[in-house]
Write a structure and sequence with these properties.
Layout (H helix, E strand, L loop, with lengths): L27 H9 L13 H10 L6 H14 L12 H13 L3 H8 L3 H4 L4 H8 L1 H10 L4 H4 L3 H15 L2 H15 L6 H21 L3 H15 L1 H15 L5 H14 L5 E6 L2 H11 L8 E7 L2 H14 L1 E2 L5 E2 L12 E6 L5 E8 H9 L13 H6 L11 H10 L5 H12 L4 E6 L7 E5 L4 H9 L6 E6 L2 E3 L10 E6 L11 H4 L3 H13 L27 E3 L6 E3 L11 E5 L5 E5 L3 H8 L4 E2 L1 E3 L5 E10 L4 H11 L3 E7 L6 E10 L5 H9 L4 E6 L1
Parallel strand pairs: 2-6, 7-11, 13-15
Antiparallel strand pairs: 1-2, 3-5, 4-5, 5-6, 7-8, 9-10, 9-11, 12-17, 14-15, 14-16, 18-20, 18-21, 19-20
């Protein structure tokens, strides 16, 4: 099944792009009549699933089809006499769902469970019967896609069914593969439903199932679902897009000629590649029309280049950028940096001499299979595990394909017992379509944290520590102290600082900066349980820094300018043997900065006169230090004592008001010997409660 060029028209003749070359389209009514005749002889598959067997053998030539025959016999006999609202025998539905998965390359266990996926829910077949006949894996998958009883859950049946499926998907992604194929066939046949029910089902599909298909990388299902939802929920925009595509069908398409040019370029370069023209599906055409306004012929499709190896992808890219005029802004490398849904490809675009802009996707054939089928293409996630390991595993089954977003979802759903909360938060979580990875500075396991794009340090804290993050008071991002509200970027290194007071809780405005459901649920629960114990907000401003004597005289610095007054800059407080630079300021004085101080660039930009500066032989110096600490009694006295033990004179000291249990101390100190500065800073850091000491 193609991930491109799908049309949600129900009539087969209106959807020729869905037909596979060399294979006739399934006639579900014919299959239904065949199903009513019952199973055939035991030595061959029933005719009704011949298409399934053909599609399955195309991907798995050595597959054992006997289990499919047994699954079909059980499904057909248990569903016999049941009819769909369209008037077709019910067996046509599991057959169609199974064919969808077979064409995507699903392995035999998935297809077996797909044939049986409605038996436990709609017939007298029990899970014990499925387990006895087909084994634990098939039973687990069938149970995962079976809806909860509406008589038990009432209005909460739908969210609780999705909760159950997601938990099962955390153990085996094949559960959600079957659910997606099931929803696709139901959407294809939704025309028999009342308009209001069509809209309700389409809304849930758009809010939940399509994002899940995207995250699991099953583009072939996602794109067709998008078109079907688009037609129901946005009929006017759909009709406009359909008219655009119909008008384009009557015009000359420039993409085949452009594809021929690409083939010629790659052939001359000796690169073996398959070049295809891939028409855009309806929603893609709609989006490109919103982006570009008036559409040209090349906007209705893209060129797909398939090669054998990763290196060939970059070779193709080099030839295209050499022989054509590349559109640099359209280049994306999803091979070096794959999307979080397994997707890998090179995306680029080039302009032709005729003025067309052609978008090109370059990928290997294996990448193409994964791009179309996602987790379905990965097959059995337990196939590589040894029998011994499987026998020893008594815990919850761990799926090696489980992505970070699914792990987060499974974690926070445990904290959302209310179905309405789960349902609303699930939709909000799935609306986040990008993901970042940050690294833990403490070296803990796991060493990375997966978060949605736009996540803050607050989200990282709850992802790492759970409810213990209530006591988080700050963070270091890439070594620099920052507020918890700071947003994180992909690849950041995060160190989270926890208060020593176990009773501390989150600030009221943390909800404004939390993006993940786990963080929002935990913060909201704590605030609701402690209405009178809210911490000061993270945006509370510190008192202005006031340091007496922070701008001392020239100290040991000597400028190569006779009779000039020399001052050590208070912004960086240079001390021997720092590399320094001097600049003449108003009044003829020379201000001395450390060479890496940001003020040096500003001075040069202002055209200040640069003056050479060196240090006198005398060893004493003045320096300003900042000590960051947790608030506690006697901290100032302990810090002052530690400084005194180093034989250092305190010129001035300032303590700022606490913010989120953090206190900042600023000391201007006179050292008898500059070489003692590292030892002094170590002694201050050793004071209990102090977590950082730095130069001002």
């Amino acid at each position: 099944m193609s991930a491109e060029a799908t049309n949600p028209e129900a009539r087969p003749e209106a959807r020729p792009e869905l037909r596979r070359r060399g294979r006739t389209r399934l006639d579900l009514r014919r299959l239904g009549r065949a199903a009513l005749l019952g199973p055939t002889s035991r030595d061959r598959l029933p005719d009704a699933i011949g298409h399934v067997a053909e599609a399955h053998r195309a991907h798995h030539p050595d597959a054992d089809l006997s289990v499919l025959r047994r699954a079909y016999v059980l499904a057909e006999s248990s569903h016999r006499g049941q009819m769909r609202k369209s008037g077709e025998p019910y067996i046509t539905h599991p057959l169609a769902v199974t064919l969808i998965l077979a064409e995507l390359g699903a392995e035999t266990t998935t297809l077996t469970a797909s044939l049986l996926h409605d038996t436990v829910e709609d017939t007298e077949v029990t899970l014990d019967q499925v387990r006895a006949e087909f084994g634990d894996e098939v039973c687990f998958i069938v149970d995962g896609v079976t809806k909860v009883e509406k008589i038990d859950y009432g209005a909460a049946a739908e969210p609780e069914t999705f909760r159950k499926m997601l938990v099962a998907t955390g153990n085996d992604v094949r559960v959600m593969s079957i659910k997606l194929a099931d929803r696709l066939h139901n959407m294809r046949t939704l025309g028999v439903m009342r308009p209001e029910k069509q809209a309700r089902i389409a809304k849930v599909t758009g809010d939940v199932l399509i994002p899940l298909a995207e995250r699991l990388g099953v583009q072939a299902l996602k794109t067709e679902l998008e078109d079907l939802v688009f037609a129901i929920l946005h009929p006017e925009e759909y009709e406009h897009t359909r008219a655009l595509i119909a008008a384009h069908a009557g015009e000359r398409d420039p993409l085949p000629a452009i594809a021929d040019s690409v083939r010629a370029v790659l052939r001359d370069a000796g690169i073996a590649a398959e070049v295809q023209v891939r028409p855009r599906h309806f929603v893609s055409v709609h989006r490109i029309a919103l982006k570009r306004g008036e559409l040209r012929g090349s906007d209705f499709g893209r060129i797909l280049v398939l090669v054998g190896e990763n290196a060939d992808c970059y070779a193709v890219l080099g030839e295209l950028h050499t022989c054509f005029t590349p559109v640099v802004s359209e280049f994306k490398d999803f091979i070096a940096a794959p999307k979080f849904n397994l997707y890998q490809s090179l995306h680029t675009a080039f302009a032709t001499p005729e003025g067309y802009v052609a978008e090109v996707i370059v990928r290997t054939r294996q990448m193409h299979r994964v791009a179309e089928a996602g987790v379905v293409a990965l097959g059995n996630p337990y196939a590589t595990a040894s029998a011994e390991a499987a026998a020893d595993c008594d815990e919850e089954r761990v799926d090696p394909t489980r992505p970070g977003w699914l792990s987060r979802l499974l974690d926070w759903q445990q904290s959302a017992p209310d179905p309405d909360t789960f349902w609303s938060v699930l939709r909000a979580e799935l609306a986040q379509d990008r993901e970042i990875t940050v690294f833990r500075a403490d070296g803990g396991s796991p060493g990375t944290i997966s978060l949605p794009a736009g996540a803050s340090c607050i989200d990282a804290a709850y992802a790492q520590y759970g409810e213990a993050a209530h006591g988080c008071i700050g963070a270091r991002v890439n070594g620099r102290l920052t507020s918890l509200a700071s947003r994180l970027s992909d690849g950041d290194t995060v160190q989270l600082l926890l208060a020593q007071d176990a009773s501390s809780g989150p600030a009221a405005d943390w909800l404004e900066h939390a993006r993940t459901p786990a963080a929002r649920i935990a913060i909201g629960s704590w605030l609701q349980a402690h209405p009178d114990s809210v911490k000061p907000t993270t945006t509370a401003a510190r008192a202005p820094l006031s340091v007496v004597g922070a701008r001392g005289g020239g100290g040991n610095a000597v400028a190569d300018l006779p009779d000039a007054t020399v001052r050590l800059a208070g912004c960086c407080t240079p001390v021997p043997p720092d590399a320094v630079a001097g600049f003449v300021v108003r009044g003829g004085a020379v201000t001395v900065h450390r060479i890496h101080c940001s003020a040096v660039a500003q001075m040069r930009a202002l055209g200040r006169t640069s003056v050479a500066v060196h240090w006198r032989a005398t060893a004493d110096c003045r320096v300003t230090l900042l000590a960051e600490s947790f608030g506690r009694p006697h901290l100032l006295a302990d810090l002052t004592e530690a400084i005194a033990r180093q034989g250092v004179e305190v010129v001035s000291a300032t303590v700022e008001p606490p913010v989120e249990q953090r206190v900042r101390h600023t000391y201007t100190l006179q050292l008898p010997d500059a070489t003692g500065l590292p030892a002094l800073m170590r002694a201050m850091r050793d004071v209990p409660g102090v977590y950082d000491v730095s130069r001002a």
